[in-house]
Amino acid sequence: MARLxxxxxxxxxxxxxxxxxxxxxxxxPAGGAEEVVLFSFGLLDSKYRYGGKNIDSGFDCSGLVSYxxxxxxxxxxxxxxxxxxxxxxxxxxxxxxxxxLVFFNTEGxxxxxxxxxxxxxxxxxxxSKGKARVRTDSLTTGYFADRFxxxxxxx
Length: 155
Prior knowledge:
The chain has a 6-stranded antiparallel beta sheet. A two-stranded antiparallel ribbon has the order 1-2. It is α+β, with helices and mostly antiparallel strands. The protein is built from 4 helices and 8 strands; from the N terminus they run H-H-E-E-H-H-E-E-E-E-E-E. The longest helix is centred in the first third of the chain and has 16 residues, at about 1-15. A hairpin with a 2-residue loop joins strand 5 (about 110-120) and strand 6 (about 120-125). Helix 2 (about 35-40) packs across helix 3. It has one domain (about 30-155): endopeptidase domain like (from Nostoc punctiforme) (endopeptidase fold (from Nostoc punctiforme)), CATH 3.90.1720.10. Helices cover about 30% and strands about 20% of the residues.
């Protein structure tokens, strides 16, 4: 129930706080970026587990991305963070849109990944600081701002 409330609140805030923007991402029969973002909100506060790939066992960052893309739009993005990065198309930071993936250098190139939500925020499965849960963070301040590597699109 708490996840549903968070999702509904996020949707209301997003609807009230942003102007319409033309999207470079077409909605196809398998869905699109919007479905990725909406589905990922439903996983907020899921537990972290190294190597985790599903909601029952928990997620690591690549497991979360793989699970969301597969469940939300039927797209298979498997492997580690580097494998997932190779499957996308690099885009400039100022062209990121919700549903794109953001990559970080936390322990070497392509060592962490998250799903861009818009407004400088992303959702991911971090293991640090005792907050071992799926959560959102900022791309513009804090730990991940200094470690941002690039963004890639899959739509």
